[in-house]
Amino acid sequence: MLKRFLPILDWGPSYSRDTFAADIIAAVIVTIMLIPQSLAYALLAGLPAEVGLYASIAPLLVYAIFGTSRALAVGPVAVASLMTAAAVGEIAAQGTPEYLGAAIALAFLSGLMLLAMGVARLGFLAAFLSHPVISGFITASGLIIAASQIRHILGIKADGHNLLDLTLSIFAHLDEIHLPTLLIGVGATAFLFWARKSLRPFLIGKGVDPKLATILARTGPVVAVALTTIISASLAGLAHLFGSDGSGIRIVGEVPSGLPLPALPPFDVELWTRLAVPALLISVVGYVETISVAQTLAAKKRQRIDPDQELIALGGANLGAALSGGFPVTGGFARSVVNFDAGAETPAAGAYTAVLMALATLTLTPLLYFLPQATLAATIIVAVLSLVDLKALPRIFAYSKPDAAAMAATILVTLGFGVEKGILAGVSLSLMLHLYRSSRPHVAIVGQVPGTEHFRNVQRHTVVTAPDVVTIRVDESLYFANARFLEDVVQAEIAANPRLAHVVLMCPAVNEIDASALESLEAINHRLKDGGVTLHLSEVKGPVMDRLARSVFLGELTGKVFLTQCDAMRSLAPDLTARTLGETRRDTSRKANALRMTAPAQLP
User: Fold this and answer.
1) Nearest to 225 by CA among 252, 198, 259, 200
2) Where does the pLDDT of residue 592 fall: very low under 50, low under 70, confident under 90, or very high at 90 and above?
3) What is the reported pLDDT for 159?
4) Tens-place pLDDT, residues 70-95
5) Which alpha helices (DSSP H) does 155-300 contain, by range?
6) Separation CA 382–CA 198 (nearest Å)
7) How far apart are the first and last CA of the chain?
8) DSSP letters spanning 255-271
């Protein structure tokens, strides 16, 4: 029982020297990647650079204790940073103590919500946020994030919480472009794109070991930070030499050395009330992203992820971020993949990363003074554009038009009205689609496949049916939203065929029948009885039968409950069923037969 809440007790006792070596190597590589990312995502969230470093220490230590993923890298991520900026920006102005306090309170509130959901085992709720909606939200958020960083690349002032406002603001200030900043920003962006796509093949082509080439390719952001910091410092030195106040390049400035002291967030009822909805949205989106990454990586090594425990671990990580002066965190896809590829064996790799980040916070911050904000913006742009997946829209449209419509609507609302309204629209659309689909379940009239005991849809197969028996296969659990729909289907079949004497509800896909659906079944039974038609059930699952047995329905049922559909037809139409079983098995697919009929004749 204790291992369930403390997964460290599962892998800790078997921890070995070889495992330590693998974890520490992965930690070094992830730390190299995390230092510029943590600074950049703090900039994206509208917070001081050191807050990004703080958010990359305590959360990793907490997750190492409570997390079930062996490779997940927790910390600041682009989407959560954007949502933080959008939420806190409505409460306080950037650069003020109130803004920082609100961001810390947001992390604390998000952690409490995730922790409560984990204790209550509510991880299943995230399943109601469909993949197309999440994909659309992340795509739109990536575009907004990239657009919001263009001002840093150009060295101008621009603001806005949606794509339209950002675009208009950028165009309105184009005459303020700062050339040195532009050159640094464009150069850093071009280098990072090249490093991401071409550095590894380039190094391998020069004879570097593929594994080492992969590691070196991950250091691209650090190289960009080092080079542009040197350039920025040199330009500032030249400007000072010629009597100028500075180069005009916006830099990170002084980053305080030292680790944060644990402190509680501001406890203000009005503040917490205003942050409640954004905190819930960040929690849900962050959890969905985290569990998706964790399960993907775990599957590669046949490991198991506990979704409810991940809620607890992620909640603890956010509480750790808040108590150490950070902002909301979640599992990062890119860093987790790097952690996995670098050979991380246990969550201890995250703990070692936290230690290395703490050392960097203690020793390296003076070197970041002249780091251009344009370089951090370039790091963000390159990272988030990999999240943009507009190609998914036509692919999903070809498969499911309603899902594509939900994805498109989420993208448009997010781009036009901001991230908070976008995710709310996405959640609403997900629930509406679920309710619509389940309220109109797929039902099929089925008949017997010749030569077998199988029954298939009469619209898809050439099958045998009895003139006085109709079998309706229900392909969904029955509950209040679709109970009336089933009544209408049965009534339509009765009206269309006056010769009917038996109706069989075939229930292999019915996992549950709620009280409303039970009333509908009782109503169907009584109506059919009044019309001289007998109602039967077939292939009812055990748990469903157990619940039906606790009602009066089975006692009032005019027909029988059959174990299989073939048993039902043997009882209701014995001669026809026997003849059909005796026939030769053949292909009954209407589509396949239609294709054969339309195919050109082959010459002998």
Assistant:
1) 252
2) low
3) 84
4) 889 999 999 999 999 999 999 999 88
5) 163-172, 179-194, 200-205, 210-218, 220-241, 269-300
6) 14
7) 72
8) ---SPPPP-PPP--HHH
